[in-house]
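Worked example 4.2. Below are the chains of a multi-component assembly; read each line carefully before continuing.
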Amino acid sequence: MDTTTVDLRHVTKTFRGTTALRSINLRMQPGVVGLLGPNGAGKTTLLRILATVLAVDNGSVRVLGRDVTDTEQRTDIRRRLGYLPQELGFPRGFSAYAFVDYMAVLKEWDDAAARRTEVRRALAAVGLQDKATKRIRALSGGQRRRVALAQALLGSPELLVLDEPTTGLDPEQRVSLRQVLAEAGRTATVVISTHQTDDVAALCDRVVVLDEGSVRFDGRVQDLVNEAAGRVWLADRADPRASASWRTGTGRYRNLGQTAPPDAELVEPSLEDAYLLLRGASAPDDAEVAA
Amino acid sequence: MSGIDIPHAWHADEQSLRRWVDGTAGTLLGASVEQHVVRCAACRGMVARMVAMPSLDGVWDRVLDDIETPRPLFVERILVRLGLPRSQALLVASAPSMRLSWLGGITAALMFVVLAGAFGGDRGLSLFLLVAPLIPVAGVAASYGPSADPSYEATAVTPYPMLRLVLFRTAAVLVTCLPLVALSSLLPVGQQVTPAWLLPAVGFVAITLLASTWVDTAYAAAVVALSWLVAVVWWTRAGDPLGVLAPELLVAYAITTVLVSVALVVRLRSLGLLWQMP
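Applying the procedure described above to all two chains together yields the following structure tokens:
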């Protein structure tokens, strides 16, 4: 049985002469897929295309078995979709409950009693059942992000498209969110874009690395990690030949590279090591590590 | 029900228990049954089966409803009284252009230009002609699009028909202008130009909506406002402020409005999105 929920073929998207996506081919099935890549890699553009926000310039997009270019089929996709944009504002004066309720109306929850139950379920899923009556502007950044996530969870969608869902969350909240998304990923396709490699390592069955609008890696998380095996070293000093190196909390230096630094100890790679090595790890700013 | 459980050789009969539950047992029987029930778990069990207890979940849900469900917005309450379903009323009332502060602002602006038109001579009349037809456009600009709606990107990909939402909110914006139109028609300036200025006003709303299928509504409204400003200033400098409402121009406004409205409906049906995202 074909379980494909997302099918992108030769998808290209350009903004004012800048190519955001270059002939992307991706197929997804139920499970949690992590999108990694530096700023400007095309992650948000890809998610917006999946969420039917953006039309592509070239190529074909089928989501949940429907053609996004057909108005009726697109509406059907939207009935089965949950979307968390990268930046989501809120109408002024709304409480958490009022906002999720407003979104539930837009998502065709017309029966008042059923809508109340669903809104409460969504708020409880993100741990905000006790903050339902609070004005959103009185909530912390992490709590606001969870309100935004709650609206995406309405109706237990078959496709969840989440752009940086863990931004602003503290470690406990991130773990809690992982549980929610892992549960959703049992039956739905969950696509998350993030800069947090540990979220991807902890949560995702599959990782797609985008760079300059192209897919640099697409496969199991462990397969990407394995690509870094034998190239991560702990040493007493930074190795100038390394692709990247930084001082760790133990005082030793973690060096990424083919060649062993003097007196170095070979260690197990993490997903972050593998990601940095894949990208070449030439730019410390992009790599988000302290060189 | 919690309580003491002392083994008893006898139990209250069902009829006595039922009368006690119903409150018809009388003082003596009632006190006797009550004394017994407090000490007898078996009879308390019978009482529990006789009393139709609401489910705890149901009670809790009603408490939550009272606490969590937000008080309907002022405009929402009015729309519900006018017969709109509550959920639809919520969508209309949630538009920034339906907030009391906004409604107060456009009321003040229109009152000002009405008075200016009444007592300000030609310049006042020009000001009225410039501002009044643009107020509905400003309302529409504050109703939709990335600039007006901070949650736009999430709301745009819901299955709710965008055309319906647009028309609901536009109608609401126009309706809020009606009392002001009625008021202005009582003044000399109103009698001079009302309802003629409504024609370009409706046309501007249609043009703004059509343009907003390509660009953000705020930009569309700004271009419309600038064009109208140029026209009003041109006629004022020509010494005939009312020239913008000349009969032949009114016909042109009417034809434009019809054509643009048709184009708008066709365009909205072909689009899943009302605005192109950056």
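Take a moment to check your reading of the output against the notes. The radius of gyration of chain B is 32 Å. Residues 162-186 of chain B form the longest helix (25 residues).
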